[in-house]
Amino acid sequence: MNGTIRVAICDDHRVVTEALRELVNGMPGISCVGTASSAPDALFMLEHIGTDVLLTDLDMPGMDGFELVPRVHDRHPDVRIVVLTMHDEPALVERASEVGADGYVLKSADKDELALAIREVFAGRRYFGGSIASTLLQRTTLSTVGSTLLKDLSTREVEVLAALAEGIGNKEIGARLFISPRTVDTHRTNLMRKLKTHNLAGLVRIAIKAGLVR
């Protein structure tokens, strides 16, 4: 395996990890050395398997990708990290970059782009390619205040906050995010508590400051 880039994968959907394993193993000079279905499992895996690049999802139960990335950097500073996700919201891309992600690729990307991202971060460069680069260029004015306000939110809470700011009701948000209206209401309550506001108008103002909506 000399000269081969060793890639580990973390995603809570088994069908995704298996598909990614096959995809990665089909890339010249790149090999999948292990998969994990949760962030704690990924941390355990990295302790026992030599890894050059970690591909991780953001939205996972328990510890999400935003918590995993800095922990990996702290414990395994030589491991490069590429976030592989379906989320293209500017605030999430910005936050992933801030916590230390070396690359950010959408799950809709093709095999060639993913291979390029792996090779780029392995070489010590950062990769925020394709539509993600355009997104960051369009939203370089994301405020520091807004980014700080979002730092304690989970991926799901950011999604709910963005949807609330668009004026969408609980039922529609639930349908969009595949959760129940009751769960949406719980997220709304938690958002108000974390962001120290007492009404929807306050949440909308924070979402605008953070660049979630125009």
Could you characterize the architecture of this molecule?
The chain is an alpha/beta fold and 214 residues long. It has two domains: 133 residues, Response regulator (Rossmann fold); 66 residues, Winged helix-like DNA-binding domain superfamily/Winged helix DNA-binding domain (Arc Repressor Mutant, subunit A, Orthogonal Bundle). Helix content is 53%, strand content 13%. It contains eleven helices and five strands, in the order βαβαβαβαβααααααα. The chain has a five-stranded parallel β-sheet, with helices on both faces. β3, α3 and β4 form a beta-alpha-beta unit. The radius of gyration is 18 Å and the shape is elongated. The termini are far apart.
Number of helices: 11
C-alpha termini separation: 49 Å
> For the report, how would you describe the main beta sheet?
5 strands, parallel
Range of helix content: 40-55%
Structural class: alpha/beta
State the order of secondary-structure elements, H for helix, E for strand.
Answer: EHEHEHEHEHHHHHHH
Which CATH architecture of the largest domain would you pick? Answer: 3-Layer(aba) Sandwich
CATH homology-level superfamily of the largest domain:
Response regulator
- Poorly predicted regions: none
* Beta-strand content: 5-15%
At the third CATH level, what is the topology name of the largest domain? Rossmann fold
How many strands?
A: 5
- Mean pLDDT score, rounded? 87
Outline, from the CA principal axes? elongated
Could you give the order of strands across the largest sheet? 2-1-3-4-5
Key phrases:
five-stranded parallel beta sheet, 214 residues, alpha/beta, 11 helices, elongated, 2 domains, Arc Repressor Mutant, subunit A, single chain, Rossmann fold
